[in-house]
Specification:
Distance between the termini: 24 Å
Number of helices: 38
Strand order of the largest sheet: 3-2-1-4-5-6-7
Helix content: 40-55%
Structural class: alpha/beta
Strand content: 5-15%
Number of strands: 22
Radius of gyration: 33 Å
C-alpha cells in the first residue's frame, strides 16, 4: 500500500490542512482509443489508484469528446488533456512493426504469419535442430549460412531471399528511428504535470504506446504498460525500448514479454484483465428471463456462437448448423449468434438477415452495429463502438455451451465454466482464416491444453457440436483450470487492487528515484535547488522565461558555529567535477570572480576574511516567500526526522524506538503526522516504523515540485508543534514559520561514511572529523540547548528562526533583481508560485 493510501481520521477531512498533507503525485494515463477506455476506465482498473494519486488522462484529440461523453463522471475537461499525433507519424510506427515482423519472425509464429512467412514456419516444424539454427541465423542476421539450392522454388531458397529481406528491414528500422525524435508534445506534458509515472493501457501498436515509452525513456519518467488483449505481446506490436514496466494478463504473457519483447524479468508481472472482473454468473431469475426473451424453451439447449475479429464466413457455418439442428443431429438446440463487436469486414460472407433461420437467433445487442456495417462498410472500424461486458456475462451465464472461431471468447467461456469448441479450420474463402489464426503464438498452450474441443476439420463440425453438449469430464475441468490460470490472473482481490499494489510496492520507489534524477538534470545550477530562481523571480515580479541566478546562492541552514572553514560555508559544486578534479584552481578563480550569496552577515564576514571578493548576505530563499494566511491547527504535531541516508529503513532499531517514543505522546496531541523528504520516501526510510505505530506519513519536501518550498512554508505555518531527532534545515525553517520546535528522541547522527561523500569533504578530505562533529547531537546541544525538550514543551522560537535564515538580510525586489542582473524592464506578471489545492 502506498504511504498515502491510509485511513484518514474523519475529523481531519475537507480542510485546507488536510489538502496540504494529502497532496498526491500526478500519474498520467494515456488512453489511445475507446477500446482501452472501455476495458480499463469503464472496467474500473484505476479506481484504487485514484485514491492514492492524482490521475490525469491524456486522450487522442480525434476521440477526446466521445471518450469524455462516455464516462463524464470519471473523465472531465479538468482532468484530461488532448494529444494530437500526426497520422504520418503513426504510419511510420506501423511500417516499423511490419518490418519487425520479418526481423523477429523466429521469436513469434504470429509475427511470421503477419509477414506471410508461412513457408518458414513449416520448415521450422519439420526441420531438425541444425537446420533450425541455420534458419534462425537467416532470420536474425541475414547471414549466408545455407548452401545454395539449385531449385528456385524450394523452401530453402525462399528462406534465403527472406533472410536478405530481414537484414534489409532491420536497417530500415534503425534508419527510421534515427530520423525520428521523441514527440515534443509529450515532453511538454512532462514539464506541465511533472508526473510520478505514466500508465499506458495498450495493445502495443496504437497512437500512444511507443511514443510514450520512448519519451519516458529519454526523460527519465517511469512508465507502466498494461496489456490490453490476449495476443498483444506476441502479435500486435514491438516495443522499441525495454525500459518500461509491463503488467500482463497472466504467466503466458509474462513469458512472451521476456522472450519476444525482451522486457527484463524484474520489469514484468501478471495482474490480469480488468474487463474480466465483470465475468460473474447471473442469478437463476436473470438467466430464466433472458432465455424467455430469446424464445428458448426450458427443454432446449442454447449454444452461443461467438464470432471472430478475423475474416471468416460465419453465416455459412451457421447455415450448416441450422440445417443439422433441423435434421435432428443435435437434438433440441437453439444457437444465439453474437458477431465480434469489432469484426473485420468480410468479402465473402452473406448478410445474416438475407436468410430465413429456423434455430439461429441473432444477438439483439449486436444487431444495430451489424446492420450499420452492412449498409456502411467500415463503420465499425471507424467508430469502434463499445459493448457491455455485463451483458456478455449474462449471455454466457444463460447458454449451455460456446462455439467460437479463434477469439478471446474462448477464454471468457472457460472462465464462466462453459463447454467450449474452438473452430480452427479454413472456410475456403478468406486467407487469414481460423486455420491460420489457430497457429498464432498465443494459441499454442490453448491448443494443447485439452480444455477445448479443437475442431480443425470442417467435416467434424457437427460431431464436435454434439460433444460440447455433454457433461464436462473431470479431466477437462482440471485442464480448464490450468489453462485459465496460465492465461489470465484473477486473484488475489480485484484487478484494481492488484494494479494499485504493483504500482505502490514495485513502481513507485523506482519512479521517485527517476523523478529525482530528472529534476537534477533539469535544475540548472545548484543555486536553483528547491526552485530558488522561481521564488526570486516571483518576488521581483519579473517575467523571465528562464531566470538564472549568477554565482552560488545558499539554500540550506548553516549555523554560525560551522564557520570554521570556508568550504563548509561557500558553495563550489557544479557539473563536471570528477575524480582528480582540480578543486584548488576552481576555488581560487571563484574567490575572485564568482558571487557567493549567503544567508547571514556572520557568514559574509567569515568568507570575506578568507579572501572571497564577491560575498553578500541576502537570506535564504524561504525568506522571499510571502507568509501564508493559514490557521495553525491547535494540538497538531509534525515529526520531521532528518535525511536517513539509507540508515533508517525497515527493521532499523533507532527508527523503531523513535516511532515508539512518538506514539507514547498521542495523548498529548490532537494530531500527529510524520513528514518525510521525498528522497526518504523513495527509499522507504522511517515509513514502516511509524506505520506500525499507527502514525500516518506524508511527503513534505520534493525537489521535483517547483512549489515545494511554498508548500513547506504552508505546512510549517499550519502545525502548532514541530519536532525532530536530528540536524537539518527543517529546524530553522520551522522556527522561522512560528512553530514550537523541539529535538527529541534517539538522535539520528549524520553517518560518518556519508560525510565522506559531501562536497566539502571531497574538496578537503582533512575536514572529515570536523564536518562530522558539527552535525552531531553534542555540537547541536552545546550551541542550542533550548531545542532539546519534549515536543509538547516546545516554545515559539520565531525570532531565533528569523535570525538563522537571514530574514534581516532580505533585499527589496529591485535590489535583488539588480544583484542577479535581471532586467527590471520586463512586464509584471501574475503570481505563479501558489499552492494549488
Amino acid at each position: 500500500m502506498s504511504f498515502l493510501a491510509q485511513e484518514i481520521p474523519q475529523n481531519m477531512l475537507n480542510t485546507e490542512f488536510m489538502q496540504l498533507i494529502l497532496q498526491r503525485p500526478v500519474v498520467l494515463i494515456f488512453l489511445p482509443n475507446t477500446n482501452e477506455l472501455q476495458r480499463f476506465v469503464i472496467g474500473g482498473a484505476f479506481t484504487e489508484l485514484a485514491q492514492v494519486y492524482e490521475l490525469h488522462y491524456i486522450l487522442p484529440a480525434a476521440d477526446a469528446e466521445k471518450m469524455r461523453a462516455s464516462v463524464p463522471h470519471i473523465i472531465t475537461t479538468a482532468n484530461s488533456t488532448e494529444l494530437h499525433i500526426d497520422p504520418e507519424r503513426f504510419k511510420v510506427w506501423s511500417e516499423l512493426f511490419q518490418a519487425a515482423c520479418v526481423r523477429y519472425a523466429e521469436l513469434s509464429r504470429s509475427f511470421a504469419i503477419r509477414a506471410n512467412i508461412d513457408v518458414a514456419r513449416k520448415v521450422i516444424k519439420k526441420a531438425d535442430f541444425t537446420k533450425w539454427l541455420k534458419l534462425r541465423n537467416w532470420l536474425r542476421f541475414g547471414k549466408a549460412v545455407l548452401k545454395k539450392n539449385k531449385k528456385s522454388q524450394t523452401e530453402e531458397s525462399w528462406i534465403i531471399q527472406d533472410g536478405a529481406a530481414a537484414n534489409e528491414r532491420e536497417n530500415f528500422i534503425e534508419s527510421q528511428l534515427q530520423k525520428m525524435q521523441p514527440l515534443q508534445a509529450i515532453s511538454d506534458l512532462f514539464e506541465r504535470f511533472n508526473p510520478l509515472l505514466c500508465i499506458i493501457p495498450s495493445s502495443l501498436l496504437d497512437l500512444f504506446c511507443n511514443e510514450v515509452v520512448w519519451s519516458c525513456d529519454v526523460e527519465n519518467v517511469a512508465c507502466l504498460i498494461l496489456q490490453s488483449g490476449w495476443d498483444n505481446l506476441s502479435s500486435k506490436g514491438i516495443l522499441h525500448k525495454s525500459s518500461s514496466f509491463l503488467a500482463c494478463w497472466g504467466p503466458q504473457s509474462v513469458r512472451h514479454a521476456r522472450k519476444i519483447q525482451k522486457i527484463p524479468h524484474a520489469q514484468t508481472t501478471s495482474i490480469g484483465a480488468p474487463h474480466y472482473e465483470f465475468l460473474h454468473s447471473s442469478s437463476d431469475d436473470e438467466i430464466k428471463n433472458f432465455r424467455l426473451k430469446l424464445g428458448v424453451k426450458s427443454d432446449e439447449k442454447l449454444i452461443l456462437f461467438g464470432g471472430s475479429f478475423r475474416q471468416f464466413d460465419e453465416t455459412g457455418i451457421l447455415l450448416c448448423l441450422d440445417k443439422a439442428i433441423s435434421k435432428g443431429e443435435l437434438g433440441q438446440v437453439k444457437i444465439i449468434y453474437r458477431p465480434h463487436p469489432w469484426r473485420a469486414a468480410r468479402q465473402h460472407e452473406d448478410n445474416f438477415f438475407k436468410h430465413e433461420w429456423q434455430h439461429i437467433i441473432f444477438d439483439p445487442d449486436m444487431r444495430e452495429r451489424y446492420e450499420r456495417e452492412q449498409m456502411e462498410a467500415g463503420y465499425i472500424k471507424r467508430n469502434v463502438p463499445m459493448f457491455d461486458m455485463i451483458y456478455l456475462a449474462r449471455i454466457l451465464s444463460a447458454v449451455d455451451a460456446v462455439i467460437s472461431p479463434m477469439s478471446t471468447l474462448l477464454i471468457e467461456s472457460l472462465i464462466m465454466n462453459k463447454p467450449t469448441m474452438a473452430i480452427a479450420f479454413n472456410d475456403g474463402k478468406h486467407s487469414h482464416n481460423p486455420s491460420v489464426t489457430s497457429q498464432m503464438t498465443h494459441f499454442v498452450e490453448a491448443k494443447n491444453s485439452g480444455a477445448f474441443i479443437w475442431c480443425d476439420n470442417a467435416n467434424e463440425l457437427i460431431n464436435n457440436c454434439a460433444l460440447i453438449l455433454k457433461p464436462f469430464a473431470f479431466r477437462t475441468e482440471r485442464c480448464v483450470e490450468r489453462l485459465i490460470h496460465d492465461i489470465v490472473t484473477r486473484e488475489p482481490g480485484t484487478y484494481a487492487s492488484r494494479l494499485n499494489h504493483y504500482c505502490s510496492e514495485k513502481i513507485e520507489p523506482h519512479a521517485r528515484k527517476l523523478r529525482a534524477i530528472r529534476t537534477n538534470q533539469k535544475r540548472g545550477t545548484i543555486s536553483h535547488a528547491y526552485s530558488a530562481h522561481l521564488i526570486a523571480r516571483e518576488y521581483c515580479k519579473l517575467s523571465l522565461d528562464e531566470p538564472v541566478i549568477p554565482g552560488y546562492w545558499m539554500h540550506g541552514w548553516i549555523p554560525a558555529y560551522h564557520n570554521i572553514h570556508p568550504a563548509l560555508i561557500a558553495l563550489h559544486k557544479k557539473p563536471g567535477q570528477h575524480v582528480g578534479y582540480d578543486f584548488a584552481a576552481q576555488i581560487e578563480d571563484e574567490k575572485e570572480n564568482v558571487p557567493q550569496w549567503v544567508s547571514r552577515l556572520d557568514q559574509a564576514e567569515f568568507l570575506i576574511a578568507e579572501g572571497y571578493k564577491q560575498v553578500k548576505a541576502i537570506g535564504l530563499p524561504i525568506v522571499y516567500l510571502q507568509r501564508p494566511k493559514v490557521r495553525r491547527i491547535p494540538g497538531s504535531l509534525l515529526i520531521m526526522p532528518p535525511h536517513s541516508h539509507k540508515n533508517h529503513g525497515p527493521d532499523d532499531r533507532l527508527a523503531e524506538l523513535y516511532a515508539k517514543m512518538i506514539a507514547e505522546l498521542k495523548s498529548n496531541f490532537e494530531h500527529i503526522w510524520v513528514g518525510l523528504n521525498e528522497d526518504d520516501i523513495a527509499k522507504k526510510q522511517w515509513i514502516e516504523s511509524f506505520r506500525n505505530q499507527g502514525i500516518n506519513v506524508f511527503s513534505t519536501v520534493d525537489q521535483a515540485n517547483p512549489n515545494t518550498l511554498v508548500r513547506l512554508n504552508y505546512l510549517l505555518s499550519s502545525f502548532e508543534y514541530v519536532s525532530s531527532n536530528g540536524f537539518g534545515s527543517h529546524i530553522a525553517y520551522a522556527a522561522y514559520c512560528g512553530a514550537k520546535v523541539s529535538i527529541y528522541g534517539p538522535y539520528a547522527e549524520f553517518p560518518r561514511e556519508r560525510m565522506k561523500s559531501t562536497h566539502a569533504v571531497k574538496m578537503f578530505p582533512q575536514l572529515l572529523d570536523d564536518a562530522y562533529f558539527l552535525c552531531t547531537e553534542a555540537a547541536l546541544q552545546q550551541h542550542y540547548p533550548f531545542l532539546f525538550v519534549e515536543p509538547d514543551k516546545g516554545k515559539n522560537l520565531s525570532e531565533w528562526g528569523a535570525e538563522q535564515v537571514g530574514e534581516n538580510c532580505r533585499l527589496n525586489p529591485d535590489a535583488l533583481a539588480d544583484l542577479f542582473q535581471w532586467t527590471a524592464k520586463s512586464a509584471a506578471k501574475e503570481c505563479l508560485l501558489t499552492y494549488d489545492k
